[in-house]
Amino acid sequence: MNLSKKSGWANITLLLVLSLPGTTLAKTEAFAFGHPGTAAKADRTVKITALDTMRFVPATVRVRPGETVRFVVTNEGKLVHEFILGDRREQAEHEREMQRMGGMAMPDEANGVTLQPGQTKTLIWTFGKVGVVEYACHQLGHYAAGMVGKILVK
After folding, report:
1. How confident is the model at residue 32 (pLDDT cuts 50, 70, 90)?
2. What is the CATH number of the domain that holds 125?
3. pLDDT tens track for 6-15
4. Cα dist. 46→4, 59, 92, 119, 124 in Å?
5. In 30-51, which positions are buried (b, 16+ CB within 10 angstroms) versus exposed (e)?
6. Does some domain include residue 144?
7. Per the domain annotation, does 19 fall within a domain?
8. Tell me: the pLDDT tens digits for 74-126?
9. Within a domain: residue 2?
């Protein structure tokens, strides 16, 4: 069998395996402020509310380095909101991306979720080193209006 036929069979096999229920390719992303956590290792749950007044409640959360937190985020408004974890660089990058896309709702990511009105979603995160991490909404105009919360990692 020549190389092109072997490559073709390998691609077909990969597609078949990926079509099985529960099979995905792991998306690995590196974040300076931590990494996605697992429910089994969650140390505690923090409830966050997103409001149409362009605020999150609570506005500040305190965590320890290495702590895994289950964020249960509820959109109590009538507008779409996001809950994106990131340091200042990550937040600025996400804001630019949303501006380029005209505010189109993004699919959920490793470090964030998009919430329709009335929706609740969970994001589990293990925090890294001491510092400040933000949670923010980047729907058009929301970040500029101050829809940002702080996570103090210490």
Report:
1. very high
2. 2.60.40.420
3. 434 433 333 3
4. 52, 12, 24, 16, 10
5. ebebbebbeeeebeeebebbbb
6. yes
7. no
8. 999 999 999 999 999 999 999 999 999 887 778 899 999 999 999 999 999 99
9. no
Q: Are 110 and 29 in contact (CB under 8 A)?
A: yes
Q: Any idea which residue has 């507008």 for tokens?
A: 79
d(CA 115, CA 84): 11
Q: Which domain holds residue 142?
A: 26-153
Give the C-alpha separation, 48 to 61, whole Å: 10
Mean pLDDT of 50-79: 98
This model's pTM is above 0.85: no
139 is written with which tokens? 């729907």
